[in-house]
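Example for tutorial group B:
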């Protein structure tokens, strides 16, 4: 039986390319959906540059506040990949070659291709455990409650399966969405009343514009399906009273 406990997490997106707009962050959505399925609430996301002092400060702040902290980016083979070294400094441990990571990478590359740059990817904080990478060989690592993952979205996603047993969450967070052909101002008062009467359910409204028409998605989130169902029925009641078109439910 899953205990009804609250487990939380934070994500630190590391990389100048995200802050400059050159690269779009896709990892937050992937991690949030995955964490919710494991019963872990994602409570905070920060995007920070490739600056050692900033990484050290942010790691030390968030690892004390949250059950789990995930970092993405900065563990590749180039000079600006400083995440692993910075995390070593945050924990006050030695930064050195991880023998298992070195073996994995050495066997992954063809003879002569495992150069000094690629060898950088075998360096981790002392005592770290590896997160295996089924896509490109280079592993991530875990030290205490900090999980260090690559920034490339497809590679990050492929590594999550190996982490499931590392995460101890509460009940999976369920959700239900109603898509309406309306505007937020038309449903704001009714939605506020329902939220007031159902404080345990997180209710959000999100406008969208599709095929030249405006609409609103109402999303309900909670660990208990029965509580979502109650909210859903109350929302459908005022939707029908106002003759608002329901586009879809999921």
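The residue assignment follows.
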């Amino acid at each position: 039986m899953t205990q009804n406990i609250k487990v939380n997490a934070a994500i630190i997106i590391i990389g100048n390319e995200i802050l400059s707009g050159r690269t779009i962050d896709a990892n937050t959505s992937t991690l949030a959906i995955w964490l919710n399925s494991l019963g872990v609430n994602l409570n905070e996301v920060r995007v920070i540059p490739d600056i050692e002092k900033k990484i050290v400060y942010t790691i030390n702040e968030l690892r004390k506040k949250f059950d789990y902290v995930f970092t993405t980016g900065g563990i590749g083979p180039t000079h600006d990949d400083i995440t692993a070294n910075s995390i070593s400094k945050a924990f006050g441990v030695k930064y050195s070659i991880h023998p298992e990571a070195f073996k994995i990478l050495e066997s992954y590359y063809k003879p002569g291709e495992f150069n000094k740059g690629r060898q950088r990817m075998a360096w981790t904080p002392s005592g770290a455990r590896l997160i295996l990478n089924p896509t490109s060989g280079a592993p991530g690592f875990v030290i205490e409650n900090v999980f260090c993952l690559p920034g490339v979205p497809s590679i990050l996603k492929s590594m999550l399966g190996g982490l499931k047993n590392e995460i101890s969450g509460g009940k999976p967070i369920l959700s239900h969405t109603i898509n309406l052909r309306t505007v937020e101002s038309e449903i704001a008062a009714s939605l506020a009343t329902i939220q007031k009467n159902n404080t345990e359910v997180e209710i959000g409204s999100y406008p969208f514009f599709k095929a030249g028409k405006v609409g609103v998605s109402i999303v309900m989130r909670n660990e208990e399906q029965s509580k979502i169902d109650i909210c859903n029925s109350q929302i459908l009641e005022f939707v029908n009273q106002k003759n608002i078109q329901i586009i879809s439910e999921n």
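Residues 225-241 form the longest helix (17 residues). Compare this with the pattern of hydrophobic and polar residues in the output above.
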